[in-house]
Write a structure and sequence with these properties.
The complex is a heterodimer of chains A (about 400) and B (about 350). With about 400 residues, chain A is of the alpha/beta class. In chain A, about 40% of the residues lie in helices and about 15% in strands. The radius of gyration of chain A is 22 Å and the shape is globular. Classes of the chains: A alpha/beta (about 400), B alpha+beta (about 350).
Chain lengths: ~400, ~350
């Protein structure tokens, strides 16, 4: 068996050894509470400040106190939207997109259903690009907050958040972006944008799990989600997760140092993967915006077969990827992102996402290209939409329930 | 990801009877593209004997859908049509050593394809499809939204309890309570709009009472085995009469009050004696204030005492009991609760 190949970095990433090393002393020696006076926490405060500044540099925030550490992207998103609705008195509408992460969408569903909030979900086109006209039409002085993701977790498609933020401000709405997939993968310079709030997650950029941050532009009115102690200047109570924050700081430094060259290399490997798959395997296509997307992400839809079956076979070949298929999520619906892009059911079910990291090698990509054709061919042999002559999607007409 | 049995994996990675059957004379095609499943079952049935001589499948679906289809073909080859007709989805799941609840619909699809193929062979009309659709709500019993909605509509259900009675959904860990409430409220709302139930009957989200708690059945310490009856008091293991101070002191000579670690190893009977002595020691203090305290009963973590005289109804009673409780807990090395009761 060859070494396992991990191409599911949009789900989570390996914590870099450097990051683990930076964290360890804060479990064992410097375990004290940063708020304490005594020596056991004396170095913690300084290390936290350093970590905050490292993250500040990665996202280009003007001030380090614009960063509020949270338990993760989900908490940051919940905090941002709820805060915005509370401080924007007299406004009860939210604008978001149809392809957001559930951390935004299911929150919006709840707000709409139980808290009297009007939610506009802006559609996307077949390449996952936002319908700007629909967004413009939804904007009004009733909108409290606009929340668009920076980069899509499934297709990697990037939304032009700078411009979207300016449009929101023209109507007095706050602008939040879920940048969980973008931070560490694309250059971000918040001080030159009009973005008010940004959510990020540590474990997507080789930091530890259970930690995230909310960027809150200086001067943006805010209501805390968690109340209690004075931590994070009273904006997020609860003892700081010091080791994790220090780990994220280190991960941010590493990302910033090598992002430019990493991105070039990852994009080249991704293109090699995409071209190889499309050339070798018929009836498949790359999803997302080919002109503006994350360098590490590709979702390829294989027609007439089902994603989970592909993943199980890939896993048996030592390759980890993920799928937009219904069967992997526990729900019966295929990916809401691919459906929003109007990708047909037969293809959406067979969509496989490969997400690369800085550590991905050419040999690993070649290994995927080596095993995929047989996996796809084998499963297509078993598919009722397939025959010896090839695809015959019209030759099979089951009685659908 | 999924907790598939070895047999599911085996039938996925090495499926039996996959592919097209050219000279099939009975074909069943079923599917649900929205959930990513479609199955074509092809049978070659001997017209003279009605025996299924060959069976092949083609499946568009996940690992368990392919395994279920393959298992189905293995189960029916060699059977007669009337034998095969009796096969249920549970037989398929059992053959595979079980399926995750979210994946049971894969076995249902197998059963439906078989029914369709049998109907095609015999020429009879196919029963109406009862393939349930929707997100899985109750993971304990594998009940999905379609099944629940149907039960609510058919039986005009308007309470969560009734939904659980009819569908079992929510009858296990009850962590699906919120989605269940939402579903019931939504369906009821639609039913009001359709005029099938009155608005006053409809369930409103968030209005159900809290799940009924099981009534506490005494205060039992499960870890402690029932103690052998102490020979000194064979007739009074439960109702402890106040022992006279003198013999109690003798009995406790080996269990000093100030040693909780040793005391925690006491048998219930010895604990009772210890508690009795402790209370006896405290009595003079109470008497000095014009009251009295007596041990009534002791079971598990519960110590029942009666307060009399100036102590009963005294505003400081709770505090007094707290003091007794602390002393007893310390002496026994475990936490107890002291409760006042009327003296029996």
């Amino acid at each position: 068996m060859t070494t396992p190949i991990y191409l599911d970095n949009n789900a989570t990433t390996r914590v870099f050894p450097d990051v683990v090393e930076a964290m360890l002393p804060y479990f064992t020696e410097q375990f004290g509470n940063a708020s304490s006076i005594h020596a056991f926490g004396s170095e913690v405060g300084g290390a936290l400040r350093q970590a905050r500044r490292s993250l500040q540099a990665l996202i280009g925030a003007e001030f380090d106190h614009e960063i509020i550490f949270t338990s993760g992207g989900t908490e940051s998103n919940n905090t941002a939207l709820r805060s915005a609705l509370q401080v924007q008195q007299g406004r009860n509408e939210v604008i978001t997109s149809a392809v957001e992460h559930p951390a935004i969408l299911s929150l919006c569903d709840w707000l709409e259903k139980h808290e009297g909030v009007v939610v506009h979900r802006i559609p996307v086109d077949r390449q996952g690009r936002l319908d700007i006209d629909a967004y413009r039409a939804a904007l009004s002085d009733r909108v409290a907050v606009v929340s668009f993701m920076w980069a899509n977790n499934e297709t990697g498609t990037i939304f032009p958040v700078d411009g979207l933020a300016e449009m929101a401000h023209a109507h007095g709405a706050l602008f939040h972006t879920d940048a969980v997939q973008a931070v560490g993968k694309v250059p971000i310079d918040l001080k030159t944008t009009e973005i008010d709030m940004l959510s990020l997650s540590s474990h997507k950029l080789h930091g530890p799990k259970g930690l995230g941050a909310l960027y809150l532009r200086k001067g943006t009115r805010f209501r805390a989600l968690l109340r209690g102690g004075h931590q994070e200047r009273g904006r997020r109570a609860g003892t700081e997760n010091a080791p994790a924050i220090i780990g994220l700081g280190r991960a941010a430094e590493l990302a910033l140092t090598s992002m430019a060259e990493d991105n070039l290399r990852m994009a080249a490997l991704r293109d090699r993967l995409e071209q190889g798959l499309v050339q070798q395997i018929g009836h498949c296509f790359v999803t997302g915006d080919p002109l503006d997307r994350l360098p590490n992400t590709t979702t390829v839809a294989f027609e007439f077969i089902e994603g989970e079956a592909i993943l199980l076979k890939l896993n048996a070949a030592g390759i980890a990827a993920s799928s937009g298929s219904a069967c992997t999520s526990g729900s019966l619906e295929p990916s809401h992102v691919l459906r929003a892009m109007d990708i047909p059911f037969t293809a959406a079910h067979g969509a496989i996402r490969f997400s690369l990291s800085r550590e991905t090698t050419e040999a690993e990509i070649d290994r995927v290209l080596e095993v995929m054709p047989d996996i796809i061919a084998g499963l297509r042999q078993m598919s009722p939409f397939w025959s010896e002559e090839g695809a015959r999607p019209d030759g099979f007409a089951p009685a659908y329930a | 990801m999924w907790d598939y049995s070895d047999k599911v994996k085996e039938y996925f990675f090495n499926p039996r009877n996959a592919g097209a059957l050219v000279d099939a004379n009975a074909v069943g095609e079923v599917g649900s593209l929205s959930c990513g499943d479609a199955l074509k079952l092809m049978l070659k049935v001997n017209p003279a004997t009605d025996i299924i001589e060959e069976a092949k499948f083609q499946t568009f679906g996940c690992g368990s859908a392919i395994a279920s289809s393959s298992a189905l073909t293995e189960l029916i080859i060699g059977k007669t049509i009337s034998e095969a007709r009796k096969l249920t989805n549970q037989d398929i799941a059992d053959f595979l050593d079980g399926l995750p609840p979210e994946k049971m619909h894969c076995s249902v699809m197998g059963q439906e394809a078989l029914h369709a193929a049998v109907a095609a062979y015999t020429g009879e009309a196919l029963d109406e499809d009862d393939h349930e659709e929707g997100a899985l709500i109750c993971k304990c019993f594998g009940v999905d939204a379609g099944m629940i909605e149907r039960a609510i509509r058919t039986n005009k259900l308007t309470t969560l309890e009734m939904v659980t009675f009819y569908t079992k959904a929510g009858g296990g860990c009850n962590s699906c309570r919120e989605p269940l409430e939402e579903l019931l409220a939504d369906v009821n709302k639609a039913m009001v709009a359709e005029g099938t139930i009155a608005a006053a009957e409809a369930y409103v989200f968030g209005s159900a009472p809290k799940p009924a708690r099981k009534k506490a059945q005494g205060f039992v310490i499960p870890d402690q085995p029932p103690a052998p009856k102490p020979p000194a008091q064979p007739s009074a293991p439960v109702q402890i009469a106040m022992p006279t101070p003198a013999p109690a002191a003798v009995a406790l000579a080996e269990a000093p009050v100030a040693a909780p670690a040793a005391a925690s190893a006491l048998t219930p009977a010895k604990e009772a004696i210890l508690v009795a002595r402790l209370i006896e020691e405290m009595r003079p203090t109470f008497r000095a204030d014009g009251g009295d305290v007596e041990l009534v009963d002791m079971e598990g973590a519960l110590v029942l005492v009666s307060l009399t005289g100036a102590c009963s109804g005294c505003q400081l009673a709770a505090q007094t009991l707290g003091g007794i409780q602390q002393k007893i807990s310390q002496a026994l090395g475990r936490s107890v609760r002291v409760m006042p009761v009327a003296k029996s």
